[in-house]
Amino acid sequence: MKAKKSLGQNFLIDKNVINRIATSINAQPSDLIIEIGPGKGALTKILKEKKASLVCFEIDRDLKHYLDVLQDEKTKIIYDDILQVDLLKVVSQIQYNNLLIVGNLPYYITTAILKHLIDANLDINEMIFMVQDEVANRFTAQPQSRDYGSITLYLQYYFKVTKLFKVGKNCFNPIPKVESAIIKFEKRENLPGVDKQKYFRLVNDSFKMKRKTLKNNLKDYDFKIISRILKEFGLNDNVRAEELSEEVFIKLTKELM
Fold it and tell me: Whole-model pTM?
């Protein structure tokens, strides 16, 4: 079967990489694993060995020939667009201890899928995803880095995000044009004590024009308060948003809102 460009399909064929991904998933028989985009089932077959409940979402019905044979009392294949699925409804029908999510995400909708998972209000313990390498760098970035931005702070609000390893182009069929990487999301036990809607609004406004200073981006805010807090953290009034840590943004949110 040929991969479909319209669905962003690049099938992972390297068994060593598949095994490394499976080894990174800390699933017990009492847990639930959701796999997004199982493709031909290469990873699915190994996930089944963990004996956990397994629900796979595949948008391409032409892959039924490969996937239907993997279904049993603990493994279910759902042919649907993950972005259109009521995930809370699906998982509420299964008894489990921990929820883990894994997948080779279509690179053009990686962020949309992550936001969909977060917005579903699932209690996610862990996620392992294949993403574009430069996207992995943005998700795991630290302050003072050019990759650091609003999406970094959004994801790190909910999870500890770690880049596990890079995956070469030759590990796929067809060979993609970009480098890939495996990233791991681990649930933060204690979320920052701040109104998240106000926090995200401030973060988004701060990075609105990334090359501009914070002062230029936050013209609608009380900059006297901002300036005072910046000085508390040893920062001057001409800093850009990428120089501010999560701690600074949290402090700003509490003082400004």
Answer: 0.91
